[in-house]
Amino acid sequence: MKYTEFQRIAVDAGLDARQCSTHHWQLLGGSRNRLVNVWANSKQGFRFQVEGSKSQGGRMKDAIELAGVVRKELAPWEDSEPLPQPVGMIRRWWRWIW
After folding, report:
1. Can you give the residue ranges of every domain in the chain?
2. Which among 27, 65, 71, 90 is least surrounded, fewest beta carbons within 10 Å?
3. Is 36 exposed, middle or buried (0-12, 13-18, 19+ CB in 10 A)?
């Protein structure tokens, strides 16, 4: 993973990305107000660490969730906006009158 891709994913999730060195990056500004250190290209793969705890392996999604941003993914059959509910004959009749 390159830093530009890391930064794009972080901004899409509503976080700030900081490049400390060529191998060490940070996620800032989550709802949990945590600093997440990330090493995307280490020998053991994608690694991240939260506020002095032991580093762990995972994916970018896991690091974003630890920063405090959890996105609800919609199922393919769900729309982003709810459909209007059908109304009965009486309500339709009152709409026509008013």
Report:
1. 3-70
2. 90
3. buried
Find tokens 């970018």 and name the residue.
Answer: 60
Dist. CA 31–CA 21, nearest whole Å: 25
Q: pTM of the predicted model, to two decimals?
A: 0.65
Q: Give Cβ neighbours of residue 62 (< 8 Å, ≥ 6 apart).
A: 48
Q: Is the CB of residue 39 less than 8 Å from the CB of residue 24?
A: yes
pLDDT digits (tens, 9 = 90+) for 31-82: 777 889 999 888 889 999 988 788 889 898 888 888 887 555 656 665 556 6
Structure tokens at 42: 């280490």
CB within 8 A of 92, min separation 6: which ones? none
